[in-house]
Structures are given as C-alpha cells and as structure tokens.
Amino acid sequence: MPLYEHVFIARQDLSNTQAEGLVEHFTAVLSDNGGKVVESEYWGVKTMAYKINKNRKGHYAFLKSDAPPAAVQEMERLMRLHDDVMRVLTIKVDAHGEGPSVQMQKRDDRDGDRGERRERPAFGGGDRPDRGGFGGDRGGERSGGFGGDRGADRGPRR
C-alpha cells in the first residue's frame, strides 16, 4: 500500500483533548477503510502566518499512514466537511522518516538548550572590521538627529 503523510490544522478554540480526539477519529476512519496509521503526533497550538476563518492560531496534528488511496480520499473528504478542521495537507511519500518529525525535534532541542546562551561580542567591538567603531562615521554629509531638515521647504502643514 502507498505511504502518506498528513498534516491538518484544527480551530484554536478547541481544547487539547478535543484536538487529540480529532486525530483518533481520523485514525479510525483510515482503519475502517483498510488503512493504518503508522505514527501520529500532536504538535500543539501554533501561530499561523495569516488568518484562516478569523483564527490566528491552530492545533496542528501530523499523521503517517499506510493506506489505499480510497481510504485517504475518504479521510480527506471527512476532514474537509468537519467544522473544526481548517486546513488539510496530504503528501504521498516513498518512505516514512525514522524518529520524530522536524517539529518535534525542534521542541526537544529548545528544551535542552534553555540553560545555554551564545556568547556575544562586546558592544561596538563586533567581528566586522569593515565597520569602524560605533557606526557614526560613514562619510558624506548627513544631518544628525531624528528629523533632520527633511520637508523643511514644503511650507506650512495643514
């Protein structure tokens, strides 16, 4: 049977248990139609790049499945009809990756690096020798300050 990876976004006003219940529901749809879910991950609530149906955030879930195309089509059809699901993406893959997905690896890396900080150069002494000192000496004539004399010859403001 072909291998697929599915990502779907559910509405932000659902609870975590309701979002995970959606994962279980769609897993059952696949298994009822002759497929199986190899692995599932709940990525949590994430901020989206743009609003979808007036939502700024959404519950993200990821499924790896081994199912016939008819089972995947049925699951996608039900996802698109479900009021709580905002977006669905299904990709056919040659093989499933080993271990957790990239999103879960990021979370694990962040948790492990909390105590460590990168060393930063001292103020004004960075590792860029082409920038001299504090950056104020760029050559040419420039008016200082915040406003300068831009627009001074425009006349009175109305």
UniProtKB/TrEMBL annotation:
Annotated spans, Disordered: 92-158
GO molecular function term, any single one: small ribosomal subunit rRNA binding
Alphabetical list of SUPFAM superfamilies matching this protein: Ribosomal protein S6
Domain of life: Bacteria
InterPro entries reported in the protein's UniProt record: Ribosomal_bS6, Ribosomal_bS6_sf, Ribosomal_S6_plastid/chlpt, Transl_elong_EF1B/ribsomal_bS6
A family per Pfam: Ribosomal_S6
GO biological process, one term: translation
Regions of compositional bias (Gly residues) in chain numbering: 132-149
Entry keyword annotation includes rRNA-binding: yes
Ranges of biased composition (kind: Basic and acidic residues): 105-131
Cellular component terms (Gene Ontology): cytosolic small ribosomal subunit
Protein's job: Binds together with bS18 to 16S ribosomal RNA.
Family membership noted in the UniProt record: Belongs to the bacterial ribosomal protein bS6 family.
Protein name as it appears in the record: Small ribosomal subunit protein bS6
Lineage start: Bacteria, Pseudomonadati, Pseudomonadota, Alphaproteobacteria, Rhodobacterales
